[in-house]
Design brief:
alpha+beta, five-stranded mixed sheet, three-stranded antiparallel sheet, 17 helices, 8 strands, about 60% helix, flat
């Protein structure tokens, strides 16, 4: 968690890249004007520049105004296309999936390049003035080159939108982003649990003393917890801090957010509270659970009566299998953080692997249990996850397998459907080392 919440929010904001490109376009416009005056100020410089690249003041202004109006039109079309995509995401997929398209750097670069081209031409029109008779200018050639670049980018954007609007590509992008988040936050390990620093005085200290409870001052979602800063702050204040809410939790005013054990004279509650970012919306700032929920929501939406697309739900289940298989091979969230002297400073509540399974599959299981393809896919994916899991993870998968069979036992299936489910269930149980339990869980 080396990056701060402000940097993360800046990088995921919609205006970040367009503003950067617009600023660079302003600087480039001034620079090319100065370069134009510098080159053409020498007598005879026109001999070394092909006349096709030079324009008089009238032609230059005509070219620049035409390009500026064309780029403004292209920018308007791009914004309209983005609104159509967002409407499609809202109606067909999930409101949470909007962030993936809006924060996509390819989309932001397209708008940034169009904005930059427009600003470049407007600045040139503003400062381009004839100072001598029959003066020629080189900058319209630069503007034409930028216009051609914008046209190429516009064609790319059309192709980009047609790719992004496909649910398979959306699910793939969400999966890739979530896997990258896992690799950044978690470590590959076969260890079943993190080292718990309970073998020294610290455990005695927090069980015998009453903590200082720090309350939230505003409602919203816990968007980001700056663990590194909390460790430094706790080290300076010589205290132990337990974060009472997980990233992504919704809290109200006066909700207990931190418990602090230490000397009250050294503890500034507001300084600790400032290291936890609370926002009105949940954002994908190093939040693995949020990525899993987005895939699940798309699957649930696909099972609704208005859409009725079980194939998309099956695709979502397969992507969830990819995410949870990767997560199963990792340690998961770290609950304890020590200072440089290896003294316990921060305790964070973390979900276990069963919680991730429940978040991923239970909503789809609840609404899709009458669909044989959905149920069969869930059991098959659980088998794949079990094959990629160390022994200590299989206990959670076994627990969720029993939950799945209990959920569907009241449903009525045809004989061929039962055979298919039982075949997948048998493979899952043998992967979990629970083959003896097959007769108990057999779907009859």
């Amino acid at each position: 968690m080396a990056r701060s919440a402000s940097i993360l929010r800046l990088r995921t904001s919609f205006w970040y890249l367009p503003s950067f490109y617009g600023t660079m376009a302003f600087i480039l416009a001034i620079g090319t004007l100065l370069l134009d005056n510098y080159i053409l100020s020498y007598k005879g410089a026109e001999k070394y520049i092909p006349t096709i690249f030079l324009s008089d003041i009238g032609l230059s202004q005509t070219i620049l105004s035409s390009i500026a109006s064309s780029l403004l039109t292209m920018t308007t079309i791009t914004f309209s296309t983005i609104l159509v995509v967002l409407t499609t995401y809202l109606s067909e997929f999930s409101p949470r999936a909007l962030q993936n398209f809006i924060t996509d750097h390819a989309t932001q670069r397209v708008l940034g390049i169009f904005t930059a081209g427009f600003i470049y031409c407007i600045i040139l029109l503003l400062f381009l003035k004839e100072t001598t008779e029959e003066q020629l200018f080189l900058v319209p050639s630069f503007a034409v080159a930028i216009a051609i670049l914008c046209l190429i980018v516009f064609v790319f954007f059309i192709q980009h939108v047609t790719t992004w609007i496909q649910v398979s590509n959306l699910l793939h992008n969400i999966t890739v982003e979530t896997v990258e988040c896992m690799e950044e936050l978690f470590e590959e390990s076969d260890a079943s649990i993190h080292d718990a620093p309970w073998d020294d005085w610290e455990s005695q200290d927090i069980t015998t003393k009453e903590p200082i409870i720090v309350m939230s001052k505003e409602p919203g979602y816990v968007q980001y917890i700056d663990i590194k800063a909390l460790v430094k702050k706790a080290y300076v204040a010589d205290c132990i801090v337990r974060v009472e809410r997980q990233q992504g939790d919704y809290i109200n005013e006066h909700t207990p957010l931190l418990s602090i054990w230490g000397s009250g004279d050294k503890i500034n509650e507001n300084s600790f509270l400032s290291l936890i970012t609370v926002s009105i919306s949940r954002a994908p700032l190093e939040d693995v659970e949020f990525g899993i929920r987005k895939v699940t929501e798309i699957g649930v939406r696909a099972l609704s009566s208005g859409i009725n697309d079980p194939s998309t739900a099956v695709h979502c289940i397969e992507q969830l299998g990819t995410l949870l298989s990767k997560l199963a091979s990792m340690q998961g969230p770290q609950p304890y953080f020590n200072d440089k002297n290896r003294n316990l400073r921060i305790i964070v509540k973390t979900p276990d692997f069963f919680d991730y399974l429940d978040i991923a599959f239970s909503p789809i299981l609840r609404y899709g249990k009458i669909d044989i393809d959905v149920i069969s896919s869930i059991i098959h994916v659980l088998k794949i996850i079990a094959d990629h899991s160390p022994t200590f993870r299989k206990k959670a998968i076994w627990k969720y397998t029993k939950h799945t069979t209990e959920t569907i036992k009241e449903e009525t299936y045809y004989e061929l459907e039962k055979e298919r489910l039982n075949r997948n269930l048998k493979e899952l149980l043998f992967s979990l080392g629970q083959g003896k339990e097959y007769q108990k869980l057999l779907i009859k």
